């Protein structure tokens, strides 16, 4: 009798274990999307709205720019079960090689595959392309196509979500600021260049190797002279920037400091990009008179 009871208990336990394993496997069968950082996450949650897929951002949404970002163990864990990894490209994510080393067969949706308008100098390409709305729309299209390629069962939904989101982005033109005459401005953050360029403004870049670094005496003197010569009234910084350089220039020239948002971090809301750009346009209207 005891043997029968013991056997029954073992059988029940085995059934519970097998059932549990089956549920876990079913959960893992979901289509898993991981984004490299905040701007890509906002694109993904708009395209995947109402669709039964998992979307996760690899880096913390408050990290900001990834140029000097060091990949962490927790980041790699997020990518372990990913079916698709969405990136900006253009060197913004400096850790892609490490990702692919760990996941050789991971599908990378590289939004820089699009025919983007790029701001370049003799040394590098400015990778903060999402701050140009036409570029952003092209990035949305690339992600949509890659989602359909890898998760075709939701093709119609991806198409509709992309159409809806792109329509909203195009409506930004109603509030966009575009200067009607040649105006020079100072930018203390390269991530803002696409916003200022789209506003038809001539940018005097004031960048150091690290955003926290102060300008040398010679550099500061040259910039102050240029600001005075070109009668520049506006200095733009990003919301998370160290203000030191901007304040030094403003003190010597009388130019005003204005804070824009490059969209590197923010609320986890589908309309975050739209709200950010509208606020930027309002600030530009105030700054450029």
Label this structure with key terms.
289 residues; alpha/beta; Rossmann fold; 2 domains; 4-stranded parallel β-sheet; 10 helices; globular; disordered N terminus
Q: Helix coverage percent of residues?
A: 40-55%
- Oligomeric state of the chains in view: single chain
CATH level-3 fold name of the largest domain: Rossmann fold
The CATH homologous superfamily name of the largest domain equals Nitrogenase molybdenum iron protein domain
Cα-atom Rg, whole angstroms?
Answer: 24 Å
Q: Kindly report the average pLDDT value.
A: 88
Largest sheet: 4 strands, parallel
- In total, how many domains does the architecture comprise? 2
| CATH architecture label of the largest domain | 3-Layer(aba) Sandwich
Structural class: alpha/beta
Give the low-confidence spans.
1-27
> Mind telling me the CATH class of the largest domain?
Alpha Beta
The strand order across the widest sheet is 2-1-3-4
Short description:
By secondary structure, the protein is of the alpha/beta class.
List the helices and strands and how they pair.
Layout: H1 2-28, E1 32-35, H2 38-47, E2 54-57, H3 73-80, E3 84-87, H4 96-102, E4 107-110, H5 133-150, H6 155-170, E5 184-187, H7 193-198, E6 202-205, H8 217-229, E7 234-238, H9 244-253, E8 256-260, H10 272-287
Parallel strand pairs: 1-2, 1-3, 3-4, 5-6, 5-7, 7-8
How does this structure look, described?
With 289 residues, the chain is an alpha/beta fold. It has 2 domains: 29-173, Rossmann fold (3-Layer(aba) Sandwich); 177-287, Rossmann fold, CATH 3.40.50. Helices cover 45% and strands 12% of the residues. It has helices at 2-28, 38-47, 73-80, 96-102, 133-150, 155-170, 193-198, 217-229, 244-253, 272-287; strands at 32-35, 54-57, 84-87, 107-110, 184-187, 202-205, 234-238, 256-260. The strands form 2 sheets. Strands 2-1-3-4 form a 4-stranded parallel beta sheet, covered by helices on one side. Helix 5 (133-150) runs antiparallel to helix 6 and helix 8 crosses helix 9 (244-253). The radius of gyration is 24 Å and the shape is globular. It starts with a helix and ends with a helix. The relative contact order is 0.11. Mean pLDDT is 88; it is low at 1-27.
């Amino acid at each position: 009798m005891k043997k029968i009871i013991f056997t029954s208990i073992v059988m029940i336990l085995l059934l519970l274990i097998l059932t549990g394993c089956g549920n876990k496997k079913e959960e893992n069968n979901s289509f898993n999307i991981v984004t490299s950082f905040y701007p890509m996450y906002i694109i993904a949650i708009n395209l995947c709205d109402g669709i039964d897929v998992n979307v996760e951002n690899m880096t913390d949404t408050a990290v900001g720019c990834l140029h000097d970002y060091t990949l962490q163990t927790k980041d790699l864990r997020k990518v372990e079960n990913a079916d698709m990894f969405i990136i900006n490209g253009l060197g913004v994510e400096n850790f892609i090689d490490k990702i692919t080393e760990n996941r050789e067969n991971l599908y990378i949706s590289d939004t820089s595959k699009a025919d983007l308008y790029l701001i370049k100098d003799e040394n590098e390409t400015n990778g903060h392309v999402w701050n140009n709305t036409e570029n952003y729309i092209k990035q949305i299209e690339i992600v949509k196509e890659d989602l359909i390629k890898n998760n075709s069962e939701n093709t119609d939904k991806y198409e509709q979500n992309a159409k809806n989101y792109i329509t909203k982005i195009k409506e930004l033109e109603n509030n966009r600021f575009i200067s009607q005459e040649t105006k020079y401005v100072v930018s203390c953050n390269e991530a803002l260049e696409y916003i200022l360029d789209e506003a038809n403004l001539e940018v005097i870049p004031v960048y150091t190797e690290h955003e926290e670094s102060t300008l040398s005496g010679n550099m500061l003197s040259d910039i102050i002279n240029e600001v005075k010569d070109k009668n520049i009234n506006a200095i733009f910084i990003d919301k998370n920037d160290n203000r030191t350089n901007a304040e030094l220039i403003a003190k010597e020239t009388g130019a005003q400091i204005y804070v824009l948002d490059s969209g590197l971090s923010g609320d986890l809301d589908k309309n975050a990009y739209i709200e950010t750009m509208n606020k930027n346009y309002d600030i530009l209207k105030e700054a450029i008179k």
